[in-house]
């Protein structure tokens, strides 16, 4: 499922377990998650209720490029830490891995 189909199904979410006020999250729980960290850095998402393996990618809004995150497959089941690739705006896109449910 691509982001253009997933985005309309997402709603603001309180899944951020540890982040400053410049990070926000949208979610279609169990399927797709977006976390935007306006100043990069570290944040944590509570993925306790997520099911299946999630694919993680970083979106660079300056270049429009999407790249696989380090440890691109995320097994949910608790609070998971992420670190943006830089100190500017980065968007983490987590989506359910269709091959590893």
Describe this structure in words.
This protein has one helix at residues 3-6, and strands spanning 11-12, 16-18, 23-28, 32-37, 42-46, 54-60, 65-74, 79-83, 90-96. Strand 6 (54-60) and strand 7 (65-74) form a beta hairpin. 23% of the residues are buried. The protein is mainly beta. The strands form 2 sheets. Strands 1-3-4-9-6-7 form a 6-stranded antiparallel sheet, with no helix packed on it. The model has no long low-confidence stretch (mean pLDDT 85).
Shape: globular
- Portion of residues in helices? under 10%
- Largest beta-sheet characterization: 6 strands, antiparallel
Strand order, biggest sheet? 1-3-4-9-6-7
* Count of extended strands: 9
Oligomer designation: single chain
What are the defining features of this structure?
single chain, 101 residues, mainly beta, 6-stranded antiparallel β-sheet, 3-stranded antiparallel β-sheet, 1 helix, 4% helix
Task: Walk me through the topology.
Elements: H1 3-6, E1 11-12, E2 16-18, E3 23-28, E4 32-37, E5 42-46, E6 54-60, E7 65-74, E8 79-83, E9 90-96
Antiparallel strand pairs: 1-3, 2-5, 3-4, 4-9, 5-8, 6-7, 6-9
Short account of what is shown:
The chain is mainly beta and 101 residues long.
